[in-house]
């Protein structure tokens, strides 16, 4: 069973280690020095930013990072994606990576996404939709959300996380069941 815990400052060295891994750095393209990790994850860990960062655990061992936020809390990003697809006012988005190289390509990403979606529905009862843009080149990620029940609703030209990527993103949507 996958469980989640909010990221705290004591987790920053682990996040920095994961962000430095080539399979993560390719898509997240974030600095991983202690100062950069504090800069990027400190505000959410202190509740100063509305996004939520989590470590994902299985059998008590952290193996991944998961993040979620409400689109309305990030107006620029919401407007950018809203130019291509409908984004309901209650919609959330999620993002994720598996930190341990030994854990990728094993179906674990799909399990992570499924568990995080279930957690999102439980902890955000007002949200009825999750909208996820995925870089078109990140095949493993968009296949993972598809296997997790998301359906592709369009394409959007968005600022890529990694400047080596084109702006094309596939946009996926999952509505609350029932």
Primary descriptors:
178 residues, alpha+beta, 4-stranded antiparallel sheet, 3-stranded antiparallel sheet, 6 helices, 7 strands
Strand order of the largest sheet: 1-2-3-4
Tally the beta strands: 7
Q: Mean pLDDT score, rounded?
A: 95
What separation lies between the terminal Cα atoms? 23 Å
The global form is globular
Low-confidence runs: none
> Class by helix and strand content?
alpha+beta
Question: Could you spell the SSE succession in H and E letters?
Answer: EHHHEEHEHEHEE
Number of helical regions: 6
In a few lines, what is going on in this structure?
The chain has 178 residues and is of the alpha+beta class. Helices cover 34% and strands 29% of the residues. The radius of gyration is 15 Å and the shape is globular.
Task: Tell me about this structure.
By secondary structure, this protein is α+β, with helices and mostly antiparallel strands. Helix 1 packs across helix 3 (34-45). The relative contact order is 0.15. A hairpin with a 2-residue loop joins strand 2 (52-58) and strand 3 (61-70). The strands form 2 sheets. The protein has a 4-stranded antiparallel beta sheet with strand order 1-2-3-4. It has helices at 12-19, 22-28, 34-45, 75-82, 108-123, 139-147, and strands at residues 2-6, 52-58, 61-70, 92-98, 129-135, 151-157, 168-175.
